[in-house]
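QA checklist item 7 of 12: single-chain prediction sanity check.
[x] sequence parsed
[x] length recorded as 122
[x] structure emitted
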Amino acid sequence: MKIHYDPKLKTLSRKLRNQSTLSEVLLWQKLRAKQIKGFQFMRQKPIDKYIVDFYCSKLKLVIEIDGYSHAFEEAFKKDVVRQKYLESLGLTVLRFNDKDVKQNLDDVVRTIEGWIETGTTP
């Protein structure tokens, strides 16, 4: 299944790539250049009406990093709607806390590798 996106998001996704958070930069250093099990990831990838932090098309895997703002109820509700929509497209969404990426990057990478090996979230 080919996943489409709103072409108007292309400019915003480019802007987001140039303004990455520290946790996005740290995780990208581990995901880029097929470093995780040989799979290619893209960052700030438009998918339909959303832009996801990281995406691997072969795995149909979305990786999101939730920063401080995601702890607020309104943002949390939007995240739930967004995740359900992405899952309705046949995608899996792995979510990581910004703090975990900064402080436990190796554990985050192991979790991603574990999902790739088993196809399930630990």
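[x] summary fact logged: The helical segments are 9-18, 22-31, 73-88, 98-103, 105-118.
[ ] second reviewer sign-off
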